From TrEMBL:
CDD domains assigned: TRAPPC4_synbindin
Family indicated by similarity: Belongs to the TRAPP small subunits family. TRAPPC4 subfamily.
Record note on quaternary structure: Part of the multisubunit transport protein particle (TRAPP) complex.
Protein name per Swiss-Prot or TrEMBL: Trafficking protein particle complex subunit
Subcellular location: Endoplasmic reticulum; Golgi apparatus, cis-Golgi network; Golgi apparatus
Keyword field: Endoplasmic reticulum, ER-Golgi transport, Golgi apparatus, Transport
Cross-referenced Pfam families: Sybindin
Chief place where the protein resides: endoplasmic reticulum
Transport recorded as keyword: yes
InterPro entries on file: Longin-like_dom_sf, TRAPPC
Length: 143
């Protein structure tokens, strides 16, 4: 089964949206909505880690709604990658890790990229599109 990814967001450690890509065919967000959603998610993620009754909680990793799921990966540096997907899409933890690998390979290692700034890297865009559009089995089990 192919993974249906609707949107992908990358948020820097300060809560600023540094990348947004819409893969859905309907319900596209404008720039202001994507910025607002990223800021809201950053805040909810931080609050959830403080409110957790269990020690060591790092924040929300999965939010399940009636019509979509929101999956989040937070790196050790505080960068968050989150995607909205079709409800019940399996294997998103692995896909988020692969997206983070692409981020480290094509964004952070790019000598022209300034950390915490919006991402404008052609190789990142190309490889990310290839990963997201791939057959679900190939894209979710490894490269």
């Amino acid at each position: 089964m192919a993974a249906t990814v609707y949107n992908l967001f990358v948020i820097n450690k300060s809560g600023g949206l540094i990348f947004y890509k819409d893969y859905g065919t309907h319900g596209r967000l404008d720039t202001n909505d994507s910025l607002r959603l990223a800021s809201l998610w950053h805040s909810m993620h931080a609050i959830s880690s403080q409110l957790s009754p269990v020690g060591g909680c790092t924040g929300i990793e999965l939010l399940e709604a009636d019509t979509f799921d929101l999956h989040c990966f937070q790196s050790l540096t505080g960068t968050k990658i989150f995607v909205t997907t079709e409800s019940g899409t399996p294997g998103m933890e692995n896909m988020l890790r692969l997206i983070y690998e692409l981020y480290t390979d094509y964004v952070l290692k790019n000598p022209f990229y300034e950390v915490e700034m919006p991402i404008r890297c052609e190789l990142w865009d190309l490889n990310l599109a290839q990963l997201v559009r791939k057959d679900g089995k190939a894209g979710l089990t490894g490269r």
